[in-house]
Amino acid sequence: SMSITYPETYIALADQVYAEGDTTKAIDLLLTAKEKFPYYFRTPLKLKELYLKTGRVEQVEGLLAEAIDRLEYKVEKYPEEKFWWMFLGPLYMENNQTEDAIWAFENALEIDPDERMALSNLLRAYRITGENEKAIKLLERWKEDYRNDKEVQQLYSYFRKMFR
Fold first, then answer.
1. 86-102, pLDDT tens digit by residue?
2. Cα dist from 109 to 22, 90, 96, 101, whole Å
């Protein structure tokens, strides 16, 4: 069998075999990915989705908490590494820890002020917590800083409608 290097490859394969009706194989692929890449955030999210789709509710218990613990350890150890913050944020979001997600995404943006993914996620989190002023301030600053950047201007229009 071919050797798989990236967690996203496992996730894509899991999606494929699940679509073909092989749930057990899909879950096995994701569990393997989780073992090989214990810090990658999308694997536990995918596993949760699959467990819930197939009625394995008890398997979901502790899945996100375990992933969050691992990444909290990483951000403690390497606070200057933006990817750990970026990985942690979506797990917090999925676990209904929006305030913690905001903390994670703000840290990622502090490390790399140009990080679009962190910006989008932070704005989504602000929307949930109703922190409209903060969101608008952040959006206006980006609009100003990236005047000639089409992508940012589109992001601005998209999010600006959300925060009236």
1. 999 999 999 999 999 99
2. 40, 14, 21, 12
